[in-house]
Design a protein that fits this description.
The complex is a heterodimer of chains A (178) and B (59). Chain A is mainly beta. Chain A contains one helix and 14 strands, in the order αββββββββββββββ. In chain A, the strands form three sheets. An eight-stranded antiparallel beta sheet of chain A has the order 1-14-3-9-10-11-6-7, with no helix packed on it. A two-stranded antiparallel sheet of chain B has the order 1-2. The longest helix of chain B is centred in the C-terminal third of the chain and has 11 residues, at 36-46. Classes of the chains: A mainly beta (178), B alpha+beta (59).
Chain lengths: 178, 59
């Protein structure tokens, strides 16, 4: 039985499975004055692609959130570009060439920072790609990038270029492969 | 129109902002203080980072 369903339909597990687009995997509350937060058990062979939502948190002073695959804030092989535009009228780009982490976007000291990060193929033993969008510290941010290795990752770490994180929630969803 | 010189974080400023023992690392729900070695490396990583301007909060 496929979507759309009708009143009175009796749905099986298979029906529900194929109708679930984004599937909630886990959430993680960020503690107080943390340099980084590692979320384990995020990625698996169940889904190829994922969406991470990051919202409600602050930094001690303005900087950028970062994401690193694995259990450490510091990795390697990150490449990408970030475009930002502030409501006050400035804009620019930041490029990452074989750096230790991927910059997601700006975060400030009050809770006006929110990002969505699509992670493509992290569990596959091949390159992982990222697409991040969001707003923070007065800036609209668009970031795209890759982690150029053939490593399979089951976890990721949220950190910052500088300063400590406090509060907020990280939520992980998997895109149903069908 | 004048230009604004960028400012950068110094180690002394960062140590004053984050004394040893006040910064944590978190893995899932487990939060623990950084060791002194971890803290020192984390401080060093930030030295020289530019201080961006804090925008006015929207009304």
């Amino acid at each position: 039985m496929g979507y759309p369903y009708s009143s009175g339909d009796v749905l099986t597990a298979a029906d529900l499975n194929q109708s679930s687009g984004l599937v909630f995997i886990k959430s993680q509350t960020i503690g107080t004055s943390v340099a980084s937060v590692t979320v384990t058990g995020a990625f698996s062979s169940t889904f190829e692609n994922y969406r991470i939502m990051l919202s409600g948190g602050v930094l001690t002073a303005p900087s950028d959130y970062t994401i690193t695959l694995g259990n450490s804030e510091t990795g390697s092989g990150y490449y990408g570009s970030q475009y930002y535009d502030t409501y006050s009228g400035t804009s620019g780009t930041a490029r990452m060439v074989n750096v230790a982490t991927l910059r997601i976007g700006s975060c400030t000291t009050f809770a006006e920072n929110a990002y969505e990060i699509i992670v493509f193929r992290p569990f596959v033993a091949d390159r992982t790609m990222f697409s991040a969008n969001g707003y923070g510290n007065g800036s609209s941010i668009w970031t795209r990038g890759t982690q150029a290795s053939s490593t399979s990752f089951s976890s990721f770490t949220i950190g910052s270029l500088s300063h400590a994180l406090t509060g907020g929630t990280i939520r992980v969803y998997g895109y149903n492969d069908g | 129109m004048g230009t604004t010189m960028a400012e950068y974080w110094t180690r002394d400023e960062l140590v004053a902002l984050y004394p040893d023992g006040t910064v944590n690392v978190q893995v899932d729900d487990e939060v623990r203080p950084m060791t002194t070695d971890e803290w020192s490396a984390w401080i060093d990583k930030q030295v020289g980072q530019e201080k961006p301007a804090e925008p006015d909060p929207l009304p």
